[in-house]
Structures are given as structure tokens and as C-alpha cells.
Known about the structure:
It comes from Streptomyces evansiae. By secondary structure, the chain is an alpha/beta fold. Helix content is about 35%, strand content about 20%.
Amino acid sequence: MESMRDRFGTTMTTLLGEDERLAVVLAxxxxxxxxxxxxxxxxRVIDLGIREQLLVSxxxxxxxxxxxxxxxxxxxxxxxxxxxxxxxxFGHQGVGGVLVSSGASYDISSGGFTHMSPGDVALxxxxxxxTVHVPGHPDEAEALLRHAVRGEDRVxxxxxxxxxxRARPVDGSGPLVLREGRAGVVLAVGPLLDEVLxxxxxxxxxxxxxxxxxxxxxxxxxxxxxxxxxxDVVLVEPxxxxxxxxxxxxxxxxRPHRVLGLGVGRAELRRYGSPAxxxxxHGLDAAGLRGRIGGFLGTGG
Length: 301
């Protein structure tokens, strides 16, 4: 299957030819995906070298000049390293742009902890006005990218090498209801959907699938909870565990509820291994999820 990062390159190459407002700003990473685009649009495909703070500041400058900048590198170098520039050059200046990361939480596990970014969405949560898309398939990545570049707002698109087997019809709006049940609600985010579906097979639970996680659709979650027999919610997120628990609490603030936030743990796994090994080590494979979901909801493991 074509990766999300490959699809990002082909989609942006097409979009650059359709909209003269768009400019792609790179810091070496994925430059090979834009060779043809750079030939066609040499003034709108800009590779600044390994200078991530400059990457974000240059994007902010392009936005101030009326462009719609699309900035790209690994998540740890796009959100964490230049966070001050993200905060000031976009948020404080009041301009929009699209940040497209790859690498996710541990896709580049062989690169060590410098190349891991499980806290990126939580970090962006400290800022106002960011839309966050977390696609689970290359087709979804293309749909959400096309949606993102049309706007004027601040958008983060989080790409991953981990993908679901098939795409769902996502459009930048609320979660999809994939299964309905009475014993609780499980909200699966992006590329962890297949593991959640396998983990909840045969369980009497509602499964929601979200690829747009900010703003958080509290109304959709509340509707799913209201249709169940309990107000028990399990979040399964491909980044830091508990990132969205506060959003769930706010959505259900007027009714007693329980929430279990599953995701990447805070402890650094120093035996870096493969991405699949990280999935299992964090309990995010189907077997690990089934035990924790079943135990929390009382549906059995």
C-alpha cells in the first residue's frame, strides 16, 4: 500500500498546480517526494535544509504575505523543536497554515527518542485555534489534506506509517459510528481503528472512529453515550495516553461517567525495536486492547 507520506507528496504536487496561494516548505525530509513539484514551481517549493525553527518562521512569513503555507517534516521536528515559533509566528500573529508531520509516535523507532513524538497533539492543545486531523489511511490523508488547504485556519495533519486496511469516508467533520452497543463507547483515533475493531469483536459496545480530533466533537460522543446503558468511555489514541480525557470530561460534565484513556505511555522505551514492537509494548495491539477495554467495561477479556 502507498504510504500516507507518499500520498502527501503526490497530492501536494497536484494541489500546487491548482492553487497559486499554496507553498510547500521543507526541511530536507521528504524532499524526494517533491522533485517534480520543485521543477514545476521552483518559487513555491522551498527546502530550507535542517533548520526547523526557520521552517516554521518562514511559513509564518508566507502566511503574512497572503500565501497558504504547507510545512512538513517529522513530528518531533515540526511541533516539539520549533514550538516557540509555532506559538508566536502562527498563533500570536493570527495567521493560518498547514503543518503536515510524518513519523507519528514511534514510526522511526530505530532513530531513537529524538525521532519520536507521542506528545505532539497534547502540546498543540496548549495553544488556541488548532484543528488536528489524524488520518488512518492514505485515502483519508488525501481527503483531509485537501480539506485543510482550502481554509484559512491553523491545521495540523498527523501522518503515520501505521494504517488501517481500508479507508473510511472522512471529511474533516465528526466521528463515524461503526458499531452500536449498550455496554459503553470506544472512540478509536486514526490508524488504531483496525486494532480496536479486532479487540472489540463480539463485545456489546459502540465504536466511534475519529480522524478529526480537534476541535473535539463532544456532541457526537454525548449522543453515543446517551444511546448506551452506561456512561463509560474508552479513548484509544495513537499518541500520549489521556490526551483527550479532559475533552471527554467537558462533553459529559453534567452526568456521572468514567473514562479510560489508552495510548502511548509516558515512559521512554529505550530498547527501541520496531514500530510493531512499540504498539505491543504500549498495549495498543488487539490483544492488549481487548484485555484493558473488557476489564474496564466489565465485558470480559
